[in-house]
Amino acid sequence: MSKNAPNLQNPPIAEPNGNKATLYYAIALVVLVIDQLTKEYFHKSYELYQSTPIIDGLFDFTLAFNHGAAFSFLANQGGWQKWFFAVLGVAVSTFIVAYLRKLPKNAKVLAFGLALVLGGAIGNVIDRMRFGYVVDFLHVHWHDIWHYPIFNVADIGVCMGVALILIDSFFLESKRLKVV
Q: Mean pLDDT, the chain, as a whole number?
């Protein structure tokens, strides 16, 4: 076996984030704070379904309460879903907090994506525990023809985070493993 050939029996292990994960926790905290401040503003300043056009026919601020998950999935199920989604959010958040410390330092896109998911997940769990529902206020639509479900900053964090995790999984992970 040549000196440059990879040792498949004992592959090198990339240095984990360890205490450097603090940067990603800070990113999650920024998402969480922005999410909670914006939700607090709309929750106190708007009546349910009150709407303010921002871009006429395309984008409004509209207060809505989501008792379910994404797209109001399981919203009318009698209340058990509040606890289910809260426990799920806490479990995912706990996993991410631990995983960010173990993640290789060179997995920056993955770590950033996980941080966004972490901030968003905690933001929505806080709502579920405080109110029994998630406060939503961002309304994208095409006049009165098409309406995307109303969402919030936490949802943006989760969606962007998942997109980055998928990008890492499909395009960066194999390159990162070769470099290690």
A: 88
The 10s digit of each residue's pLDDT in 90-147 is 999 999 999 999 999 999 999 999 999 999 999 999 999 999 899 999 999 999 999 9
Is 168 marked active-site?
Answer: no
| 155 part of the active site | yes
Q: Which of 35, 60, 127, 155 is catalytic?
A: 155
Query: At CA 51, angle to CA 131 and CA 28, rounded to 5?
Result: 50
Q: What is the pTM of this model?
A: 0.85
Q: Tokens 């300043």 label which residue?
A: 45
Q: Compute the distance between CA of residue 162 and CA of residue 70 in angstroms, rounded to an integer.
A: 14
Catalytic residue among 35, 60, 127, 136: 136
Complete DSSP assignment for 127-162: HHHHHSSEEEEEEEEETTTEEPPPB-HHHHHHHHHH
